[in-house]
């Protein structure tokens, strides 16, 4: 069979770092070991029953057996606007300031192709979600990394950026609550971001995937809650984390009208929108009582407390995340993030994601997901304790 050569564009895409991790994990599982996988970001709970029932009912409606409107049903965009006004006191025009997405990832990859040209600069958090890099590569743009350091609460310092990078930058990605660090943004930081973006004509894309998941009684801020934010950017939200709908592939972008139009225009050429029954179930998720969301956040907070306490008890100096469902853990002296991850997999049969996979400034950390039971999280800590890497508390 003839082997056709991939395009230069495909060959220029960043290597998928976590594919090698999946391969390593599969090898250990194949050897018959009981592996506790904390390395993924895949929610472990089912979609709430009332949302599933809404889908089941809607799927029988012949209206949805035809092509959906290219830019999504108006009822879903209206539900998004209602959701944002209820949760964040942010008013949105459903037709001009909401774009329906095939999951948050689609929008995060598409946005670079919508707004930047080859050679333009995009400001990217480091560490950060690797799929930002993919969209930038598809747009043939360049990345300028914004270091996220623990001493700055994992918020970027815009004073670190060179005048040249700022001058060439057209787009900036932010993500709070943050993957992988679990940090949250402050109102002061977002206000500073709005001012910086307005001054330098930079579009801000705030990845709000973990927007529902804040701990210790603190609700994460929407970027659009800040005065002037809609003038300089958009926010991308997914149903995957808030409602355990990762497999449903539905999300939305909200904010600046011109950016929403650009996303819609690109998607006009790529898709014919999402199955209408999924859109109806998604609208139901946004408009129904949010008890299931509150219960989910409580579940993650309880898991966080058990896991962090267990790690501290074995002598590991760790900090509890303020949001998201990830813990960002410093590696012991003498290890890189990858060698430490390999050791935990091979000796303790515990999977964590090496920080280097999220960028240069992820080195020195590993990411652990709170996506299994409290018992399994405690067991993971017990297994790690047996490696005698830390001095357990007496």
Distance between the termini: 65 Å
- Enumerate how many helices there are, as a single number: 15
> Could you tell me the number of beta strands?
12
Q: How do the strands line up in the largest sheet?
A: 2-8-7-6-5-3-4
- What class, by secondary structure content? alpha/beta
Give the overall average pLDDT. Answer: 95
What best-fitting shape do the alpha-carbon axes yield?
Answer: globular
Q: Helix content range of the residues, please?
A: 40-55%
Which spans of ≥5 residues are poorly predicted at pLDDT below 50? none
Q: Quick one: biggest sheet?
A: 7 strands, mixed
How much strand? 5-15%
Q: What radius of gyration results from the CA coordinates? A: 21 Å
Order of helices and strands: HHEHHEHEHEHEHEHEHEHHHEHEEEH
Oligomer: single chain
Describe this structure in words.
The protein is of the alpha/beta class and 394 residues long. It is built from 15 helices and twelve strands. It has helices spanning 8-11, 17-30, 49-59, 74-88, 104-115, 131-138, 163-168, 187-200, 229-232, 239-242, 257-270, 276-287, 291-313, 337-348, 374-385; strands at 36-37, 98-101, 121-126, 142-147, 169-175, 203-207, 233-238, 251-255, 326-330, 350-351, 353-354, 365-369. The strands form three sheets. It has a seven-stranded mixed β-sheet with strand order 2-8-7-6-5-3-4, with helices on both faces. A three-stranded antiparallel β-sheet has the order 9-12-11, covered by helices on one side. A two-stranded parallel ribbon has the order 1-10. Strand 5 (169-175), helix 8 and strand 6 (203-207) form a beta-alpha-beta unit. Helix 5 (104-115) packs across helix 11 (257-270). It starts with 7 loop residues before the first helix and ends in a 9-residue tail after the last helix.
